[in-house]
Amino acid sequence: MTQDNDLRIGRYKLVKEIGRGAMSVVYQAEDPEIGRMLAIKLLKHELVEKEEYRELFLREAKAAGRLGHPGIVTIYDVGIWQERPFIAMELLEGQNLDEYLQQNGTFSLEQASDLAKQLALALDYAHQNGVIHRDLKPDNILVLDGGRRFKITDFGIAHVEHLFLEDEGGKSKDKIMGTPAYMSPEQITGHGVDFKTDLYSLGVILYQVTKGELPFQAPNYAAMMQAVLHLNPQPINIVSEQGFMWQSIIFRLLQKNPDHRYPTSDELLEEIETLTKELTQNKEGLAGIRFVSMRARWAISLSAVVLLVMILGMVWVYNKQNKLMNQLVFDYGNSMVQIISQETREPLLLEERITLQELTRDIAGNSQIRHLSIRDKDGIVQSSSQPEQISKPFSLPPASQIQQKTSDAQIYSNLTDYDQEVVLFDSQIKYQDKVIGNAFIAISRSNLKSATQSSLLAMIIWMFLIMLAVFSGVYWLANRFIQRVNETRHVIRELRNHGEADILKVDTHDEVGRLQQEVNDLSQKLAGLTQTQYISTSPDPSLLETITDLDKTLIISQDEADSEIGKDSG
Ligand SMILES: Nc1ncnc2c1ncn2[C@@H]1O[C@H](COP(=O)(O)OP(=O)(O)O)[C@@H](O)[C@H]1O
Ligand SMILES: [Mg+2]
């Protein structure tokens, strides 16, 4: 490329065409003075003749030129080249949102809410400065940083409020301007618009980036107008709490009556912020916790508490019972050994071994007495239920453990030396306060032991039955509760997905009943909110002509509209 052949618009050297809209062609160009690249937007050749379009071009420069915001393309300069107006502005590398969507498909909720936030901030700034865009659509949004940043461009049909203008003196005749698929009901019918028309278009864009289709599709302008005025968009159907929040934001933006849209961008931004927070929290929210039904949770934890209390009680009872039983054995053994001492002291004193042995045999006939032996003061066994011990020195069975001790008697327990558990009693035999020997008996504990054991078993069975009753009772109660909670949840899900649901039958007045009542109230309220309310405005009959390019910016002046009517009637 030589210097001479360079095509220049004003002082700007054209590099290449980078975009094209309804009104203009956009070029990449270079400002040789400062050596920077920029974008030059030039009015299309075929529109040069029309005064109206030249005016619009200047309007864009006027409207956007006053704005400086990271979410809005910056205008540097405006000029006329060969009678064609042009605008010089910052060059943005990237695609417009329409091309981006075609390449990358729909947005995730995170990306979409990010887009919503950036656009809402930029629009808020423009509105604060008295500029209403009026032609917000994917074509006019540039995507930067691979989808992380967005900038609004093309303020071609923007409206600058009188308050902010020195000299527009009543000039703004009602024209129909905008892109039908993105136009608000008030805009599409040619009624006066305010900043809320941009909120509506934002709603259409957000709907489109998440659902992949427009809220209303129509083959021609008349049908589009009918749809925008009278139909409800289909739900977006992102099945999650956040999806529902997102849909309610979009549906509020898409409200047909501008008064029902967000009154301020702040309120919109607040809701987007809440959603963003939910989205980040949700990542580490319920998903990380394993689901355990409350009937299991309740039944198991209550049974566990009951079990613990019962075990503690049982241990206490068992100990108490054991103690009593032991006392009983001790008392019984003591009196037994006393009686034996009484009975045997005379034969022992008189060394009547045969009488002693007979007595021993008689007493040992008692099945509770496992061992009985009488010894003299030297410790030599005089009679015994185990005859091989007679005449031998007495020895305590080795596994005996002392339990109680008094001056003239000892009690031992012994678990192993006999064929069953026994308690051993060893008591002195006295005659006129002189010790003449000892009586020794082993009394079986097995009967008492089996009595304690069977009462323990009864307690365990009883405990098991109580546990079973508690478990099934709680399970049954929780089940009834869960059933009602699930019904309510189902209705809430229906509400989220379809904006409407059956009314719950509330037949129990308790906390859940009240919750259900609240849900019923909510669903009645939502029936009004999630469905964009239809408004009646009489469409201009001249516009019911077929216009097929519903995604191209459209400008119908009142003159044209009038002549269209003329054509119709003539
Ligand atoms: N500053 C810019 N940098 C890069 N590309 C741009 C810029 N402005 C516009 N474009 C591209 O040119 C296309 C048409 O520009 P736009 O301003 O929307 O024109 P029109 O008013 O004719 O619709 C845009 O969709 C975009 O792809
Ligand atoms: Mg455009």
From TrEMBL:
Protein's name according to its UniProt entry: Serine/threonine protein kinase
Keyword NAD listed: no
GO biological process: signal transduction
Gene3D superfamilies linked: 6.10.340.10, Phosphorylase Kinase, domain 1, Transferase(Phosphotransferase) domain 1
Residues that coordinate or bind ATP: 41
InterPro entries in the cross-refs: HAMP_dom, Kinase-like_dom_sf, Prot_kinase_dom, Protein_kinase_ATP_BS, Sensor-like_sf, Ser/Thr_kinase_AS
Single GO cellular component term: membrane
PANTHER family recorded: MITOGEN-ACTIVATED PROTEIN KINASE KINASE KINASE 20-RELATED, SERINE_THREONINE-PROTEIN KINASE NEKL-3
Organism name: Kangiella koreensis (strain DSM 16069 / JCM 12317 / KCTC 12182 / SW-125)
